[in-house]
């Protein structure tokens, strides 16, 4: 029973071919993970935040919470400048 | 404002800052791609036991590793240049505010109105109320209306200071004898904080910036208090 002839030449070349493909796969995985895991969600969150934002409602909420110095809760003008 | 453990940017509050965050993500994507490829190649080289005695030249791979990095740089540069020029655009500001840096406080002048100028000193820690932020609160905040293009002119009276509000993506040096100009346009109401960003002496860390962004009727009312 004869054994299959092992590869005797071009070992570096064939190793490089394999690792080139593996390297591309690794690189695509990490880049894709960042793109779909971080970048796209962040873009989506900003879009949704500004699509749903009612600036006047937000202003009234913050004003009535007493956050501003220039305008007090209820719309009274602030003083002290 | 910044919070404990923060790694990335503060939440963007202006269109320019939103674009800056997106550009940063784009650059980071490219960086992760390049670094992971280089790290893998490093691993592959370190674990390699083979060699090639007859290797002299390799025109194809030389071409690839010249053209590919050049392409990556173009992909990186085009959005960057686009945003750089976008940041310099000034269309029709409805309000102008002059910011003057002093040792160690900011002063604000609203020359579109009469008698509207004031100084803005940091509130000492012992004078803070509950819920106020140490080293960020000021006695008189700069007030501007939301969703309005505001021209900002920054200068200084003594040494170089720098007016910086990270959530708006603005950092502008205040240089004595020079007016630096930029535009502000803030998407939403709130208080936005920043700190002096150019070494200016002993209290450089104690001259913060606090921006109060309110709606137009409230801003008009506030301006009227100065003419009373």
Structural class of chain A: mainly alpha
Main sheet specs of chain A = none
Spell out the helices and strands of chain A N to C.
Answer: HH
State the low-pLDDT regions of chain A, or none. none
Count of separate structural domains of chain B: 2
The helix content of chain B, as a percent range, equals 25-40%
Q: List the chains of the largest interface with their residue counts.
A: A-B, 38 and 41 residues
Largest sheet of chain B: 5 strands, mixed
At CATH level 3, the topology of the largest domain in chain B is Immunoglobulin-like
Textual characterization of the structure:
The complex is a heterodimer of chains A (81) and B (228). Chain A is 64% helix and 0% strand. Chain A has two helices and no strands. With 228 residues, chain B is an alpha+beta fold. Chain B has three helices and ten strands, in the order H-H-E-E-E-E-E-E-E-E-E-E-H. Chain B has a five-stranded mixed sheet with strand order 3-2-1-5-8, with no helix packed on it. In chain B, strand 1 and strand 2 form a beta hairpin. The longest helix of chain B has 32 residues, at 15-46. The chains are: A mainly alpha (81), B alpha+beta (228). Chain A binds chain B through residues 11-13, 15, 19, 22-24, 26-27, 30-31, 34-35, 38-39, 42-43, 46, 50, 53, 55-56, 58-59, 62-63, 67-71, 75, 77-81, and chain B through 12, 18, 21-22, 25-26, 28-29, 32-33, 36-37, 40-41, 44, 48, 50-52, 118, 139-141, 143, 146-147, 187-191, 212, 214-215, 218-219, 221-222, 224-226.
């Amino acid at each position: 029973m004869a054994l299959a002839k092992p590869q005797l030449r071009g070992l570096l070349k064939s190793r490089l071919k394999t690792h080139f493909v593996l390297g591309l796969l690794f690189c695509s995985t990490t880049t894709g993970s960042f793109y779909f895991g971080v970048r796209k969600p962040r873009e989506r969150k900003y879009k949704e935040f500004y699509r749903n934002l009612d600036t006047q409602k937000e202003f009234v909420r913050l004003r009535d919470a007493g956050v501003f110095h220039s305008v007090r809760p209820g719309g009274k003008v602030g003083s002290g400048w | 404002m910044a919070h404990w453990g923060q790694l990335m940017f503060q939440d963007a509050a202006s269109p320019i800052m939103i674009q800056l965050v997106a550009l940063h993500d784009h650059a980071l994507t490219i960086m992760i791609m390049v670094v992971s490829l280089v790290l893998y190649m490093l691993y592959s080289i370190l674990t390699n036991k083979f060699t090639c005695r007859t290797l002299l030249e390799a025109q194809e791979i030389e071409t690839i590793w010249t053209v590919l990095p050049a392409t990556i740089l173009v992909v990186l540069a085009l959005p960057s240049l686009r945003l750089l020029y976008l940041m310099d655009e000034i269309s029709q500001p409805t309000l102008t505010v002059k910011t003057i840096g002093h040792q160690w406080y900011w002063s604000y002048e609203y020359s579109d109105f009469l008698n509207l100028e004031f100084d803005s000193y940091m509130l000492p820690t012992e004078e803070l109320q509950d819920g106020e932020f140490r080293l960020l609160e000021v006695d008189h905040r700069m007030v501007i209306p939301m969703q309005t293009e505001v021209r900002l002119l920054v200068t200084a009276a003594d040494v170089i200071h720098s007016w910086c509000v990270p959530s708006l993506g603005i950092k502008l040096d205040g240089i004595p004898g020079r007016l630096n100009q930029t535009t502000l346009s803030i998407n939403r109401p709130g208080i936005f904080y920043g700190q002096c960003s150019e070494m200016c002496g002993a209290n450089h860390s104690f001259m913060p910036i606090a921006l109060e962004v309110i709606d137009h009727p409230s801003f008009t009312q506030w301006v009227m208090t100065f003419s009373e």
